[in-house]
Amino acid sequence: PATQPSAPAEPAIEPAIEPAGEPDPLARELELLRTARTALRGGAAVDALAALATYQREFADGQLAEEAAVLAIDASCAAGRHADATRQRAAFVRRWPGSSARARVERPCR
Q1: What confidence tier does 110 reach under pLDDT thresholds 50, 70, 90?
Q2: Is 22 helix (H, G, I), strand (E, B) or coil?
Q3: Rounded CA separation 110/32 (Å)
Q4: Comparing C-alpha atoms, which of 110, 28, 41, 26 is closest to residue 71?
Q5: Nearest CA to 92 among 63, 110, 65?
Q6: Who has greater pLDDT, 104 or 5?
Q7: pLDDT grade, residue 13 (50/70/90)?
Q8: Would you say 66 and 96 are in contact if contact means Cβ atoms under 8 Å apart?
Q9: CA angle, 104 then 108 then 110, to 5°
Q10: Residues 69, 75: Cα–Cα separation, whole Å
Q11: Do 28 and 58 form a contact (C-beta atoms < 8 A)?
Q12: Most buried residue, 21, 64, 75, 110, by most Cβ within 10 Å?
């Protein structure tokens, strides 16, 4: 009997793996925002601002820039830096006018 030709082999699909030594930028963004959020919740607003300054230097246009901006406003308020918070609010509204966080951002410092 004639043998059937075998079907062509499916190409192997290899999972995308980050090369060793190259950190995931999103993971770093998350790490900095977690650090800032934890510091802010712990009453260490200045430490939160330091983490957010690092975020800004490393990821000015990062995937989580909007979230970082909200945290920066909260941290500035908590640190008593009301003039900074006012400037940050104005910049936030210019950059993200349709943001779902806009109402929260526009609240004055307490």
Answers
A1: confident
A2: coil
A3: 25
A4: 41
A5: 65
A6: 104
A7: low
A8: yes
A9: 105
A10: 10
A11: yes
A12: 75
